[in-house]
Specification:
With about 450 residues, the chain is α/β, with parallel strands linked by helices. It has three domains: about 100 residues, Aspartate Aminotransferase, domain 1 (Alpha-Beta Complex); about 230 residues, Type I PLP-dependent aspartate aminotransferase-like (Major domain) (Aspartate Aminotransferase, domain 2, 3-Layer(aba) Sandwich), CATH 3.40.640.10; about 70 residues, Ornithine Decarboxylase, Chain A, domain 4 (Alpha-Beta Complex). It has 17 helices and 16 strands. The strands form five sheets. Strands 2-8-7-6-5-3-4 form a seven-stranded mixed sheet, with helices on both faces. The chain has a three-stranded antiparallel sheet with strand order 9-12-11. Helix 6 links the parallel strand 3 and strand 4. The N and C termini lie far apart (about 55 Å).
Length: about 450
């Protein structure tokens, strides 16, 4: 018998569990469910940029045709294909608006990939904090009026950058923020990594339809696409000429054809015209599970103050007197693999590829819930720390590793970012305070890199 290598062994052990996949990617392991023979021999399709199959950063053949098809579907002036996930799209968006010593207004619930790109490009963020109206702590909605206030203070910024939906499915008012940005003639960039399916809601909730200048879609999160498949949509023609060149600055010169092929096949999946009904069905199932969870005593995200994406079931963990790892063990014992579990929340991501049996497992899990609720603790909120150095200067400054207990008053030199959800708690250049230390301990972080 052939010896199994470590990663193959680990993945095979996961497959043996036959868990209901409430995590990304959106194909849920059923990419061949719709077309049984497609890519069954992956090695045959794993090629490189040979003659006749086009080149990602030139895109004047088949890849360009795929990109144009996606642009028509999403209503963009130009769409770029990415085999480097939404991260590559985010890097490209920011590179297109960056200027020397530039400033950018950004939601503080951004993903770590955006912060890394800002540091490399020398952009200094001006933070807008989520309003906590949904109650999830580290996520939340960005208020249009808060964006307006920052634009009034800093009219010379390169762009406004927001994340919507966030990791918990909370949607900000992109349309109103876009109107405000237009009134100040400042481009709006949206990290829509978790919202490629929002085009297929009625009405559309996709950022391009709501007025964004650019946005990224991580197709693999909710669509039947291999991990790493993503799109960069451009609505403002000003940014089209340099887009491919900027993307090539960050992307691999050997883009994965299997990923790009899965994106290409997604076009026919979309063009069947069934997505509106399929995602309505997903949202209906999630809402039904939420109603059951609420009856069992789970605290849910508050949707009254704004819109939510109901492809995500978000369950409280903190009001049961157990740890996140214990909650995760209970889910897995019920045959459910979540996207994310912390001591505060559990996130289950659904897509049309989740079968009825998957939802029945969650229903059974909730019906069998037998713990009494305890007094709720307050949600984890991203601390508002004082900036002491620029983001870029802090990252590249001489540094040392210290324990969390000894970090109060020191300046962070590296991001501290539980991933998922990928939202930084402490950002390079910020001075660490007691509240940050407390939150970091709660997240199980024991050391941090600080400026010497």
């Amino acid at each position: 018998m052939e010896k199994q290598t470590p990663l193959v062994k680990a993945v095979n052990e996961y497959l043996k569990r036959d868990a209901a996949r409430f995590h990304m990617p959106g194909h849920k392991g059923f990419l061949m469910h719709r077309e049984p023979n497609r890519f069954s021999d992956a090695y045959l399709y794993d090629i490189t940029e040979v003659q006749g199959v086009d080149s990602l950063y030139e895109a004047n053949g088949a890849i360009r045709e795929t990109e144009e098809a996606f642009a028509r579907i999403y209503g963009a002036k130009r769409t770029l294909l990415s085999a480097g996930g939404a991260t590559l799209c985010i890097q490209t968006m920011l590179a297109l608006v960056a200027r020397e010593d530039g400033k950018i207004i950004a939601g503080r619930n951004l993903h770590t990939s955006a912060l890394n790109a800002m540091a490399l490009l020398g952009l200094s963020p001006i933070w807008v904090y989520p309003d906590q109206s949904a109650g999830c702590g580290m996520g939340g909605r960005l208020r249009p009026e808060d964006v307006r206030v920052e634009l009034q203070k800093s009219p010379d910024v390169c762009a406004v950058y927001i994340t919507s939906p966030d990791y918990f499915g909370i949607l900000s008012d992109v349309e109103q923020i876009a109107k405000i940005c237009r009134s100040y003639r400042v481009p709006l960039l949206v990290d829509n990594a978790h919202g490629s399916h929002l085009k297929f809601r009625k009405p559309s909730l996709h950022p391009i339809d709501l007025g964004a200048d650019m946005c990224c879609d991580s197709l693999h999160k909710t669509m039947p696409v291999l991990t790493g498949g993503a799109l960069l949509h451009i609505a403002n023609e000003r940014y089209i000429p340099a887009a491919k060149q900027r993307m090539s600055m960050f992307g691999s010169t050997s883009p994965n054809y299997l990923i790009m092929l899965s994106c290409d096949r997604c076009i026919s999946y979309i063009e069947k015209g069934e997505l509106l009904a399929e995602f309505e069905a997903v949202c209906g199932r999630v809402r039904a599970l939420e109603e059951l969870a609420e009856k069992k005593g789970f605290v849910l995200l508050d949707s009254k103050a704004g819109t939510r994406d109901y492809t995500k079931l978000v369950l409280s963990v903190y009001n049961w007197g157990i740890s996140g790892s214990q909650f995760g063990e209970r889910l897995r014992a019920g045959g459910i693999e979540p996207e994310y579990v912390s001591d505060m929340w559990a996130v289950l991501m659904a897509s049309p590829e989740n079968l009825g049996g998957d939802y029945r497992r969650v229903e059974k899990f909730l019906n069998a819930w037998d713990l009494p609720a305890v007094q709720s603790t307050s949600a984890q909120v991203v601390p508002r720390l004082e900036p002491a150095m620029s983001l870029r200067s802090a990252i590249f400054a001489p540094s040392e590793m210290v324990s969390i207990e000894n970090s109060t008053g020191r300046i962070a030199s590296a991001m501290v970012c539980p991933c998922p959800p990928g939202i930084p708690i402490v950002i390079p250049g910020e001075k660490i305070d007691d509240e940050a230390v407390k939150l970091l301990k709660t997240c199980g972080i024991c050391c941090i890199k600080v400026v010497l």
